[in-house]
Prior knowledge:
Number of helices: 13
Distance between the termini: 41 Å
Strand order of the largest sheet: 22-23-1-24
Strand content: 25-35%
Largest sheet: 4 strands, mixed
Amino acid sequence: MAHPEPATAGASEAHGHGTGEARPATGRRSPALSGRVRVPGDKSVSHRALIFGLFAEGTTHITGLLEGEDVLNTAKACGALGACVTRTGEGAWEVTGTGGRGLASPAAPLDFGNSGTGVRLMMGAVAGQHVIAGFDGDASLRRRPMKRVLDPLTQMGVELVSSAEGGRLPLTLKGSSETKAITYETPVPSAQVKSAVLLAGLGAEGETVVIEREATRDHTERMLEHFGAQISVEPHGAHGRRITLKGRPHLVAAPVDVPADPSSAAFPLVAALIVPGSDIILTDVMMNPLRTGLITTLLEMGADITVVGERTEGGERVADLRVRHSRLKGVEVPPERAPAMIDEYPVLAIAAAFAEGTTAMRGLSELRVKESDRLAAVAAGLAACGIAHEVKGDDLLVTGAATVKGGGPVETHMDHRIAMSFLVLGLASTDGVSVDDVAFIATSFPTFMPMMRGLGAVID
Length: 460
């Protein structure tokens, strides 16, 4: 069984995860940004490509895989569960799956580092299999709630053998090859919970149904179909969907070309909007309508973003984006948009800091249970940089200014998106912005520093 190789060169730029050594950095007032870049592959699609390769019969060829720590941990977990996982080049991987043979019980606990997506999806994958598996992660992941996934999985017949207090990591699950198909309505909009239930449903006799009141990213549904499963998606209510999966499908290996991650593209995109004179092109960005909430919001704010060459690749819509410096205005961001941009609110707050008027971001309760309490972390960072803001319940209101002084140090709380967002803020601030640690950027965007510097950003 081959084991995944380390991430490619460039990952070391932001490495440090697990070393215990904080690596501070400062984003400084920068000249106009320019250039043409492709951000790394989409993290959500990368995780799922590996997991479906694990289940499929034959060898799945993946190109454009995000080689950040989160995804590499999922690759290692797939190997430990019985797949043959091989890196064949930059972003190029092969996964020879278990087919109909079933997964293997791993010899040691599966360590997902900082990745909530990896651990929650893999819990679902294990649930419908006759295996016992331990799950663990770093200090940040150990604090994150797992009960929202465990609740439906135990309804389906999974046994929670052991866990830390409150159903948190580290925990051990005993899966079952006699998983029960259920109809489950997700209590909060969560693509991770939905995906875990659908993955568990692969091992169930009958139809597994997931009902969501707010539509969340649909990469799992698209990939299930791509690998040969029978799945149907119907509207449910005003904004929701009803997803039905026929159990025990025969999944067959299929090639996956991972598009550029819109959540990663958000950082150079916002940087170009706020740094005067900037004009950049971001290539091959995923334009899945359930992932473009940030672009929709920025366009409403007056952003100069041109969508070029929209096309379909590997079942996903992609396009190139030309982004130029813009005068932004404050807008109202409705709560029903949150699932389509949940990871982008920190960097939207940065754009809002330079917008005329107040930007009101509504219904952000889900931000409180991400890698950190992102709502609190963003508010504290804005305060450290002298930016007018207010948190009202689960709403964040940011009032922009023509000139932003900057400051810091901003506490990142081991959260990669907080670190990147406030470094971007520094690029257009008079005094720059320092953050206390950039080590965790490696989890999702290992080439962030060199890519931004290549566009002209001053980060040291």
